[in-house]
User: Fold this.
Amino acid sequence: MGTIKLKRGTGSPAGSLEQYEVAMDVAAKTLYTSSDGSDAVIIGNNTEYFLANNTVSALATTGITNETPTYSGVIKSIRQNTAQNFVLTGAEIVRDLGSDGAVAGKEARTASIDFSVHSDNTNTNNAPADIYAGGIYGGSGSNDGSSPNFLACFAYDDGINSFSKPVIWEGTKDQFEINPRIKANDGMDIEDPDADLNDAVINIKVDQSGYERAQIMCEDSNGKAFSIVGEVDDVNQNRDKFIVSLDPDNNHSPNNVTTFAGDYGVYYLKEYGNINNPSIEMNVFGAKDAFKLRVFDDFNGGTDSYDYRPMEIYAEQLSVRARDAYNSDVEVLKIDQTEAQFQVPIKNANLSADPSNPVNGWQYYNTTTHKLRLYANGAWVDLN
Assistant:
């Protein structure tokens, strides 16, 4: 075995080396070389940062190959630098296009990271070869700045030559867009400590407006349960809408009539045809049998569990309207702080005899005597 004895000393040998001459700082155990006879560039030391300040160039036809029989890592890159600059990376992949980038649109000639395995036996191409699982590649937008930077993934359909390239995200300094669907196998937490009404934790936007342009869809193993739509309708009397559509794909529709997706659900509206006097509405669609509002108790310790409970309505005035023909309704009852006004005849209970346990003020129509009777001062009296 032979040895090479280097120039030795303490401290940087800058200025004392000829071009390409090598020397060692024995105190710091650092190896230097000079690129032009005036400097001293570190090419190695006693740590893992070997060639920390140098580059390795590979021929375009061969690249760099590093093989190892272990699983500890084929290539490991660490760069020691404490500066707060994202450009100072441990690894960088650059593709020299040899020409200008795209004038408009995305630049398709990008740098990529490919993932593959080598098969010594037959594969989908019936020959020993590399099987490509796919990879990721990132690129810049156009030279004119009209297109965002992007990151895309590509997956080989047959492991050899056919692949697709869906864009994962696009981004500029002002906007970051994720294109494919996101699936969370173990839940997802999204936090924003500075959120407010106009800067929400999640902002979902569609490019078109309409009651059928759902922003959120909820489904389980049995199908689609409901969708949520936010709509600003500037055409129909200037309405802001919040729509919850049940059975959004109309999969459980009646089979005796024609119905459409969106026929079943609740529409909340802020209607401001008169900008100074807006109204808030709740419209229920698809209630062929009825719209039923029920108020239940909780489990209540197992006693009268989930029994009905009272409901209270607070308003300056309560008005009840009934429709007597399509698109025509009339007010049948108005209640305020002083009186209840019935706008239609009142039908009393029809009974064949006086009801038991009456209290003063009860009234009914006796079908036996054909008398309207009132319970007053502890006794039943006829009113006609």
